[in-house]
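WARN no homologs supplied; continuing
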Amino acid sequence: MHLHHRALKHFKAVDAKLHNLISTLPELSNTSKKRSRFESLVGAIISQQLSVKASDTIYKRFVNLLPKKSSPSAEQILAISDKELRTVGLSH
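OK structure emitted
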């Protein structure tokens, strides 16, 4: 089942107001083939830190912490110390 339909089904059962709101929105699609969904989530979290330019810089520094500058996995992120994450500009 498509993500939009699963969200509608879920919110119909738990929150009628959100269900009504979501049902009025167009379906979103992942048009970017460059990032996995997890990588997009990581990028979105980082982008909430500051301005877009600052978050882009922080994200690039963050990726440089990864082995061979690969796409992040949860395991790789957990292996990075809080101190290292803060040195690239991420907040605690």
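The CA atoms of residues 82 and 92 lie 7 Å apart.
OK
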